[in-house]
Amino acid sequence: MVHSTPTAFASSKSGRPRVAIAGFQHETNTFAPFGASFDDFVRADGWPAMTFGAAILDVFPPIEIPIGGFISSAKDAYELIPLVWAAAEPTSFVSDDAFERIAEMICDGIASAGALDAIYLDLHGAMVVEAYQDGEGELLRRVREIVGQDMPIVISLDFHANVTEAMVELSDGITIFRTYPHIDMADTGRRAFSLLEQRIRHGSPFIKAFRKTPFLIPLPAQCTDLEPCMSLYDRLPERVKGSVLNVDVALGFPLADIRECGPAVVAYGTDEAAVAAAADMQLNDILEAEGRLQMSLLDVKEAVEHAARNGRKGSLIVLADVQDNPGCGGTSDTIGLLKGMVEGGLRNSVLGLLWDPQTAEAAHTAGLGAEIHVRLGGRYGYDSEPYFAKVRVEALSDGVFTAKGPCLGGAQVDLGRMARLLILDPGSSVQVVVASVRYQCLDQDLLRVVGVEPREQSVVAVKSAVHFRADFAPIAEEILTVESPGAHWCRNDILAYKNLRDGVRKTPISLASQQREFQIAERRE
Fold first, then answer.
1. Strand locations in 315-467, DSSP E?
2. Does residue 263 have a cis peptide bond before it, meaning omega lies within 30 degrees of 0?
3. Cβ contact 178:158 at 8 Å
4. Alpha-carbon span 247 to 238, nearest angstrom
5. Are β-strands 478-483 and 51-52 bridged in parallel, bridged antiparallel, or unpaired?
6. In the predicted model, what is the mean pLDDT of the chain?
7. Cis bond before residue 353 (omega within 30° of 0)
8. pLDDT the model gives residue 88
9. Does residue 138 sit in the same domain as residue 215?
10. Distance between CA 340 and CA 40 in Å, rounded?
11. Range(s) of the domain holding residue 251
């Protein structure tokens, strides 16, 4: 067993605490058509490839990511022992093989690290493995078997974590993103460092409070740029005072069909009554906001007609293809919105990113200016037909660049071969950006890499649910969320859940529905 010595640090050479760090991230949409293999965690996309050892200390600090923020804050205070970091794009279940191999890397690294004073893990909180509903909880259980119950362990989680009893019980502290779009990921890592510092100085575990809501929240309704979530999160810092050291909220990932799916509140401190009161106040804020946690989705025809009337250069309209968002497990290759844009006669418009390596390869083979017949999308297991079109190859790229937007700022992106194609239709002027790697369109540089300047367009369609707002909202006159086919179902009430705990509603009850229920109850009385 690896032992912790909080008051006499394990590193006699430096006199600083020896802290092992690692990361393992996946957001699992159990309704998506395909899962994540080990290879998916190895390769790079918008985030780095699987990274080992000392390279972690160099790769991550410049990136907007929790472990980067933790390293930047901890590098002078701790002797960091970096193990492994791995992440994969959201899909359905993580394969048992992938989980076992990466969990073994982390656990073996901890077991062979020598004497440690603490551990920090950069996790997601919504990982579902073929064999385990709670991937993070199972990982923490294995880590605890190695280090025992006294070792301080702090973890950071995604905004959409489905926080479980095991995650809370087996860790000493949790910090969670507070923005969606996620523009505070590095700051979440810095807050994890601060919480770990306090835990080490405290010398014993904090008092904990853990609360869950009785309903799930669709992702488009979780945006913190809009009400009511803006106010819910604005009030969080008010809860952290005196003996209350941290309060965080995860609004959950409703596409994970697991027992403990749903929003949660966690709180930590040194006074039981104060910690419980802070958690209860935050939970009550969420419960009181239930009726306003709604979303507005337009059908394709309505959205395209509005864009055709109002979109123009200098007055950009952004259409969000929210249900084909690869950041939530969508395939990023359904063509419902693209087809609607062409048939609706949109001009000076572009859609990105369509995951279609075959078409990207065909475009590179044909070369710039070539006119070719292609099959666009509809390849990857979701119920979507392809779109057949004649296109002209307008631009080509190797898909390697540095992103500068708020969510990805500083990340080295590698999406493989990319192409910008103009659909040759006499009644419209619609371009589509195809990529060889599945990734959501959350950064303007994902379009600029193939020569599209978003500000110059009349209409930009993005396969993203909310993250795109961080970079596109400042240049958009209007944003419309569109209900087109995709594996990221936004209407939770139509999903066939099998594992939710009793009493959990699939979706928030609207204010109108609450009023109707109240009136019915009054009549019964």
1. 317-321, 349-355, 371-376, 387-397, 400-402, 412-414, 418-423, 430-435, 459-462
2. no
3. no
4. 9
5. unpaired
6. 94
7. yes
8. 97
9. yes
10. 32
11. 18-292
Question: What pLDDT, on a 0 to 100 scale, did the predictor assign at position 410?
Answer: 80
**Domain end: 292, 318, 343, which one?**
292
Of 11-15, 327-331, 385-389, 429-433, the least confident: 11-15
3-state secondary structure of 71: helix
Q: Is residue 91 part of a domain?
A: yes
* pLDDT at position 103 over 90: yes
What are the φ/ψ torsions at residue 22 (nearest 5 degrees)?
Answer: -160, 165
Examine the pLDDT at 465 and tell me if it is beyond 90. Answer: yes
Other Cβ atoms within 10 Å of 465 Cβ, number: 31
| Rounded Cα gap, residues 271 and 489, in angstroms | 41
**Which structure tokens are listed for 208?**
């904990």
Q: What's the average model confidence in pLDDT over 286-301?
A: 95
Please give the pLDDT value at position 510: 76
Is residue 517's pLDDT more than 80?
Answer: no
Q: Do 283 and 431 sit in the same domain of this protein?
A: no
CA distance linking residue 210 with residue 190, whole number of Å: 22
Residue 465 DSSP code: S
Residue 10 falls inside a structural domain: no
Residues whose CB falls within 8 Å of the CB of residue 234, separated by 6 or more in sequence, listed in order: none
Q: Which among 306, 322, 297 is positioned nearest to 485, based on CA atoms?
A: 322
CA angle 159, 165, 169 (to 5 degrees): 105
User: Using H for helix, E for strand and C for coil, what is the string for 217-238?
Assistant: CCHHHHCCCCCCHHHHHHCHHH
| Cα–Cα distance measured from residue 95 to residue 83, given in angstroms and rounded to the nearest whole number | 21
- The DSSP output letter for 333 is -
What CATH number does residue 38 fall under? 3.40.50.2300
Q: Specify whether 325 is located in the same domain as 220.
A: no
**Are the beta carbons of 335 and 384 closer than 8 angstroms?**
yes
Specify whether the CB–CB gap between 281 and 239 falls below 8 A.
yes
Answer whether residue 337 shows pLDDT above 80: yes
* Residue 420 backbone phi and psi in degrees, to 5: -110, 125
Q: Is residue 517 part of a domain?
A: no
CB neighbours of residue 299 within 10 Å: 13
In degrees rounded to 5, what are phi and psi of residue 482? -115, 135
Question: What are 18's strand-pairing partners?
Answer: 79
- Read off the pLDDT of residues 21-70 as tens digits, 9 standing for 90 and up: 999 999 999 999 999 999 999 998 888 999 999 999 999 999 999 999 99
In the chain, pLDDT over 70 holds for what percent of residues? 94
Task: Indicate whether 417 and 458 sit together in one domain.
Answer: yes
Tokens 């209860």 sit on residue = 280
Q: Count Cα atoms within 13 angstroms, Cβ side, for 399.
A: 23
Residue 251's φ and ψ, nearest 5 degrees, are -85, 0
Examine the domain organization and report whether 275 and 304 are in the same domain: no
Percent of the chain with pLDDT over 90: 90
CA-based nearest residue to 160, from 264, 50, 302: 264
In a domain, 512, yes or no: no
Query: How many independent structural domains does the chain possess?
Result: 2
